[in-house]
Amino acid sequence: MRGKAEMTVTRTDRVAAILAQLTLEEKAQLTAGRDMWTTVPVERLGVPPVRMTDGPNGARGSSMFGAAETTATCVPCGTALAATWDRDLVERVGRLLGAEARAKGARILLAPTVNLHRSPLAGRNFECFSEDPLLAGRIAAAYVDGVQSQGVVATVKHLAGNETEFQRYTLNSLIDDRALREIYLLPFELAVREGGALGLMTAYNRLNGRYCADDDALLTGIVRDEWEFEGIVMSDWYALVSTREAGRAGLDLEMPGPPRAFGSALAEAVRAGDVDEADLDAKVSRLLGVMERIGALDDGPPGPESSPEDPEHRALAREAAAAATVLLANDGVLPLDASARRVAVIGPNADRAEIMGGGSSRVRPHRRITPLQALRERLGEDVDVLHERGCDIDLRVPVIAPESLRDGFTLELRSGDDGIFDTRRDDGLLMFTGESLPGIDRDTFRLAAQGTFIAREDGLHTFTLAQAGRGRVYANGELLLDGTLDPPPPGSQFMGLISADVSAEVELVEGDELHLRVEYDPDESGPSPVRGVRLGCRRPVPLDLLDRAAAAASAADVVVLVVGTNEDWESEGLDRASMTLPGEQDQLIERVLEANPRAVVVVNAGAPVEMPWADRAAAVLQTWFGGQEMAPAIADVLTGDAEPSGRLPTTLPLRLEHNPSYGTYPGENGSARYGEGIFIGYRWYDTRRLPARFPFGHGLSYTRFELGEPRLSATQLEPGDSLVVEVPVTNVGERRGAEVVQCYVSQRDPRLARPEKELKAFAKLHLEPGEQGVARLVLGPRAFAYWDPGDPEQPALDARLAGSALGAHGDARPPANPPGWQVDSGTYELRIGRSAETISTVVAVSIRRAGTLER
To answer: Which structural domain, as residue segments, surrounds residue 414?
Structure first.
């Protein structure tokens, strides 16, 4: 891992020379974006513009929501990457993302997202790593290290207290000092200190009353002074930023451009004396220093974006998707018996590639494969694969899918009299964002598109049109959808940037073809980051879907039941209202289990869902949003070609009401009170003795492992000491597999309330049958510490007690401590095992005296 010493960005001679030649106005212009994705150049001094790109599960390029010509490798979502518990693998995924960012001409990747799973309902949980700050931070450090090895800045986001989409631009997150330090800041700190992150992005929300971009105590006091962070801090897109406060606080870059609070406004604030020019110089020095650190000062203007599809990237995405798959339960049905001649593949997500959540992390993947397609290909022609979808789960009418089109849509774009650009889209998302197309003005182009829709079943099909501009759709030469004469009002899709749907119904018979023709123009609707139309189709929903699914299950040797969510339910901009699977999926599962108990339930969701049927299924797999290679990876795992080596990075509770944030989530009256304090996730369930459906860290294997007696480097410690624990691990099964050894720390008789136990180290080993390895667990100085918030009233009280009997004997209360990391003397237990619930060994160590650690 790249450490702090290697990530240091200083004011080199080159940076100092550029800074000395910049005018006040030029310096201020460098602190704000030029446009949506690039920084401002200073051509006379050779400072180039720097392009940036979203996001966590793919380097998308200069577009939004995957609406672009360029494609990208869609890697597993954040929760899936954390479910691997494999830092080496995640570092390789980071390298992939860095390389693809460079292919897009970008030097800054707006990722990873390290906010925590405070509630199962948070809309962006899929994008984040874990409920545990150590796991999130260590995975983030590996991700950052990989990205930055390619000369690309990793931007860790969103700092801080951004655990809900409720009132997300203005919400005030109320977090006490102890929870902030021990829980919510720790992933950012580890990404900086251990991963060497060169970028941080502030959250939209307020933190204890102050907007994060304006928070000097956070950005300067903690991030720069304590963590010694010397990279750049940027705002989230269009975040509320105060010129004076953010100018003083340590925010370096306001995004996107044109600027609102920085740029010329910041130059004027310097002239007026509201912001010191030294603060502006420090911002510019950090910006230029980071550019020099990654080699971007020697770049020319960003080149054209490209979409190389590297076979090695595809293989790595598939490996990561399999490694993220968690085998929650298995009665022996998995791996599937090769003798099965009839397999039913059922469920609303079986014939769709639900590979990512919605919002800014969305990419246009190189390819999409459904679980049904992957299983048919893997099982071969000798196996009869039956399919029924069972129910419908879409909140919105879905985009017309590639499998419903013959060769997608052909598009012709015209700009003026000469500019013509031809392209193709494989689905009904005919939207354009980001860079202008060759010879085309994105704000004025006209679009004509044609494609053939093929009905896959009998019944009433609902077609929809949503638009940013004005569009019409013709079917077999007749007007079907008109967004021109009576334009629909604004909608909620694409973060409110496109209209609500216009809809029409068409009765079709399986095999019927509709020739669709689209006409579009922007109609002087003003500048917008989005242009084009979204064409949707809701398939018929027969009344007997459940009956048909049960019949298919009954006729099969084994059932693969693919259920879950999609980007309608898990997306930036909205939280879920319930942990229940959407639609009639629970009823579908019950009907299928009644018809055939040899059913494997594959849960294709980025966040926890209720599983009241889990103990009756033959097996349960959690696949998350597994990226573009998820379906082949599912086939690999089901057939035994790959090991399901994932472990839960978040607790799957029995019910929503057990969650520690229940009652205070998402917030009210403009505030979100983090009333559970440090008791997030398993810390709450363990300490309150609440059972979980599946505990944090849980995951089964296709082989068996034995953990031996741990060997400790010491049993008595001083404050600030590190401890090394070595645990022998033996694969006593008959297959190659992976085990994750987890070490939790529990303090006996703590001075302040502490969780029952807390994860402090982990290691993943891959072992052949009969092979023994050693899990090396390093517990650093903070492994036994807690944040003591101090007592602002205590010094005065101690002074009043100094001459009293209580004060003289020292037994009134412990001496006053300033806020800081505190280690108490006493006995601590190391609880070593396979999950937060499955502990195989408990070893005691002692700390001989109390002490305060350096920050």
So the answer is: 395-540
